[in-house]
Predict the 3D structure of the following.
Amino acid sequence: MRILKLTSAVEKSLLHARLERDREAESIAARIIADVRKRGNAALFAYTNQFDSIDLRREGVWVTLQEMRAARSKVSSDFLRAVRQAARNIRRVAEKQLPRAWTIEVEPGVKISQRVSPIESVGCYIPGGNFALVSTLLMTAIPAQIVGVSKIVAVCPHPNDALLAAADFLGITKIARIGGAHAIAALAYGTKSIDRVEKICGPGNRFVTAAKQLVSSDCAIDLPAGPTEAIVLAAKGNPKWVAADLLAQAEHAPDAGSFLVTPSMKLARAVQEEVQSQLSHLPPNNPAHQSMRKTGAILLAPSLEAACVFCNRFAPEHLSLPDDPAALLGKITAAGTIFLGPWGAQPLGDYVSGSNHVLPTGGWAHKRGGLSAADFVKCISVQTISNKGFLRLADAAESLAESEGLLAHRNAVRIRR
């Protein structure tokens, strides 16, 4: 893991590299989406065979209920207990996040209300490379269930027993064996085998993330949640724990970005040594070996203040503040999720704390937070205006309509006098 001085040139290079990767992925995803829209199942089946070595004609697009029930009998009781605990915490957080109905009388005779209605259908994208991410099924499906989404489908190219058992536990009965940009296209536009959905949620690689953004004008999406990003910001701390958190996120993918940002050369060198030591205990095919070599870095900042400025510009998906968190938290304005204190191991948030792990990447934490129950509802405004309320509003409405040259607007008010 490299140690680099955090200069303006280094910062610019890091941000530019992220942008270039996004542009390349967008070009490839666009071609795949256009092909699926044109050829439907034929393209979907071909890409699934090409990228995931799955023959959907032989294996079937959809996992059967019998497969799900059988999977539940194959997993351990410890696993099922973990799923129950995680699900309970995710539900508790989602229930707190849910927007509420309300009514306010803004003027006598003028009432504005908010109705909260669930989206009709949601597609949950579950990454499934070497292992299907059970936790992502929980993080996406449970908030949708809390708000009452009537149709929840999941897609995962390699749904294993753990994922199928969790789906059976949640009551999710529709899981398709597809992934990648072609799965996003199928969910957004539909094919003979896949019905289109109103919204797509869930994280994925850079091609999945690019595909979600490309279809977003036709199908709602949650947020860009692409290759994992993690920053630990500290001047001191336990180097073993810091290294472990960085490696935990680095093993998601070869292009995951894990960074320590610190003004302390002592901590930088200690963490560098620990990363190498802990890497040696991971299997050679673990993606952390590649991501730490190519993407990850230890950034030596001139001060904690400068470190905070960089973190806000980068807007990481995960940010850990193990040292002096109370003082540093107030300086942070952009991050997907923040872990405070030395005991906030990042994998706790990935799995069981209850906070959602579908988080903004690529700088999107400047603009929004992570997935929540609010992403699965429509807040519909209702206006109740009496004759008394009409008379109180009419003059102002006519005046504003005239200022915009919209005479029919003015007339729709004036004709009621």
About this structure: The CA atoms of residues 205 and 226 lie 5 Å apart. The longest helix spans residues 8-39.
